[in-house]
Amino acid sequence: MPITYTSGEQVEVYRFNWAVNIGVPAAALWLQSFLPLHFPFFKMFDLPLLVTIFFAIARRNPISGLLTGSVIGLFQDALTGLPLGINGLAKTFVGYGASSLGVKLDVENAGARFLVTLVFYVAHEIIYFMVARGLVALNLQWSWPHELVAALANAFVGVFLFFALDRFKQRT
Amino acid sequence: MESVLGRYKNLIVLVVVLFAQVLGLAVQVKRTTDTESSRLIRVWAVSAVTPFEEVFVWMHNGSGNLWHNYFYLRGVRAENRELKQQIEQLRLEQVRLSEDAAQARRLQALFGFKEQFLSKTIAAQVIGSGGSEQSRIVYIDKGESDGVRTDMAVITVNGIVGKVLKIFRSTSQVLLIDDQSSGVGALLEKSRLQGIVRGTPAGEVVLEKIMTDESVQPGEAVLTSGGDRIFPKGLPVGVVTHVANENRADLFLNIRVRPAANLNKLEEVLVVTKVDEKEPNPSETGPVRAADILAQRLPSVPDKPASADRAQANGAQPGMTPRPPAEKAPSPQPNVARPGEAPATAASKPGTVVPARPASSSPAAKPAETTPSALKPATEQRPEPTPVKVLDASQVAAKPKQTPAPATPPPAKPQNGPQ
């Protein structure tokens, strides 16, 4: 199966009903807030980011993707106590990039999803780091080993999460 | 023009959204003290998430309580026996500690120290976290309607946790002490060196502003100093785990602290909603009066001589020594016998009328309180050599020839007399 599309007609665009549009990001935000209390290692995961990537590559609409990333990121910022916009900016980029990529690539198979999530996780962390250091003057430390391990872990979880969320897809 | 807009529509929307967020970020960063502009979305986010967390915690606790309280009772009898033994031991310990505490209160009263009391706290359950490695905050299930306000201290029985950062109607956001934006006034328990406890980007807790020429040992406890006006003084912060001076050009030591409270496993916390600060009232701390203190320091104060009553009957003023007018008694200086003694006590002031004990006679009947001879034996009470001011000739001459006899048995040993 070719990994790139030769024409736009091959691209399948999905949509979701309103309950999924609201419920899945809300559930991701809630789990991201709740689970680290009992499992501190869970801070390594970024469920809202995974949900952003999923919706972006499923809808394959850059505007929809960036708006989804923007809203999810802003709500995530609201929960972290940090200035609003750090996650918002990073996830806006990711939403735009993932949906733009979804137009061109087949991101339905597990391998592609793993790679896409891995790449966009690292991109998200770089943008987050730049915004937090450059605009907000937060004192953050960058650690490549940590980021790569976290990217692998998120990509691994993302594959399973995406397959779980596939059942909510509706063909347009 | 329309074709250009249509062609770059996605990019334009991206730029607009990014610009709006950067603008919003800039506004927030510039106005760090005014959070009202961004409050609404925070309220929405918190209101949307915390009810689920509260319900989940409630269900989790309910099922856990059902299991542990009604089904899983294995080993409870043995545990009960052990706990009863512990209670007995703790009761004995409590008696000993209460004696120490009473003594400490009395001494604080002498110095007029101000005490801080955690007069009111609210128990709260931790229901959520920031969910990010960069922000170390938690959410508790008590908010504005429960009396929680911003900047209130949040503690556990083990030590301090953080402070209330933002309040909502029924929940609050707590900034943990390991967050890099937090700061707690702290002091080392033994050396009493003061510094600031901060979080690091890596989530560690460090004690800053301790000079490199100071000696700090791992294992030393770190307490709150009360200097931040948030945490009352004396609460445990943590224990020093690592002391280093990596860069010799640095003025300050690099001290790592392990928090006393387990910040990664917080379940229940206490919000300190009211801290009383008052000077301890000696009347509340037992029968401690200036006369008692003086008697403790002067074990050889003689009982009221019979002549004193007669002198008083002859018109002697209270507080005056019944002595012939020609023999002018020097006014006693408190530091004659005990330099460095607390001068605030009424008993040590020359000529002060000291209220007498109920069992003894009137103040006038205690001439020793104003005579230097009575102060002298106080140095004998303390075996360590204390610098004693040498009396000049006139004072020596003015000494009464009466030898103070230890008529009254020495009171309880003043273990920690005010220095």
Describe the structure concisely for a colleague.
Chain A is mostly helical. Helices cover 69% and strands 2% of the residues of chain A. A two-stranded antiparallel sheet of chain A has the order 1-2.
Write up this protein:
The complex is a heterodimer of chains A (172) and B (419). Chain A contains six helices and two strands. Chain A is an all-alpha fold and 172 residues long. The relative contact order of chain A is 0.16. The longest helix of chain A has 25 residues. Chain B has four domains: 41 residues; 37 residues; 175 residues, Rod shape-determining protein MreC, domain 1 (Thrombin, subunit H, Beta Barrel); 76 residues, no CATH class. Chain B has ten helices and twelve strands. In chain B, the strands form two sheets. A six-stranded antiparallel β-barrel of chain B has the order 1-2-5-4-3-12. A six-stranded antiparallel β-barrel of chain B has the order 6-7-8-11-10-9. Chains A and B meet through helix 1, helix 3 and helix 4 of A and helix 2, helix 3, strand 1 and strand 2 of B.
Structural class of chain A: mainly alpha
By CATH, the topology of the largest domain in chain B is Thrombin, subunit H
What CATH first level of the largest domain in chain B would be assigned?
Answer: Mainly Beta
CATH architecture annotation of the largest domain in chain B: Beta Barrel
- Placed side by side, the strands forming the largest sheet of chain B appear as 1-2-5-4-3-12
What distance separates the N and C termini of chain A? 23 Å
Radius of gyration of chain A: 16 Å
Q: Can you give the helix content of chain A as a percent range? A: 55-70%
Order of helices and strands of chain A: EHHHHHHE
Segments of chain B where pLDDT lies below 50 for 5+ residues? 31-38, 306-419
Give me the CATH superfamily of the largest domain in chain B.
Answer: Rod shape-determining protein MreC, domain 1
Number of helices in the DSSP assignment of chain B? 10
| DSSP strand tally of chain A | 2
Oligomerization status of the protein chains? heterodimer
Q: What's the gyration radius of chain B in Å?
A: 32 Å
Terminal residue distance of chain B:
88 Å
**Total tally of structural domains of chain A:** 1
Return the CATH class of chain A: Mainly Alpha
Q: How does the major sheet of chain A shape up?
A: 2 strands, antiparallel
Task: Please give the largest β-sheet of chain B.
Answer: 6 strands, antiparallel, barrel
Biggest sheet strand line-up of chain A: 1-2
